[in-house]
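Following the same procedure, the fold was encoded as C-alpha cells, giving this record:
***
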Amino acid sequence: MSAAARPELEELIRRGARRRTALRWAVVACLVVAVAAFVVFTWLLFTDRPTHTVWLLLVLPVLCFPVFFLLLYRFGVTRRL
C-alpha cells in the first residue's frame, strides 16, 4: 500500500463523520422533544384534560429519532460536512 491518500477512503471517513454527527444531533433533538412532551403532559395533567401518556412520553420521541437522523444526515451531505 502506498502512503498516498485514497479518495474512496477519505470519502468513507467523511461519511462516517457525517453519520456520527447526525446521530449525535438527532439524540439531542429527541431529548428536546421528550422534554417538550413532558411539559405538555404535565400541563394536560394539571388542567384535567385526557393525557396520552404512552404517546407523549414514549412513542413521540422514538418516532422523531429516525426523522431527525435522516434530515440531519441529508443536511450534512448537502453541506459537504
Summary: The helical segments are 7-46, 53-79. Residues 20 and 64 are 17 Å apart (CA to CA). The mean pLDDT is 87. The chain has two helices and no strands.
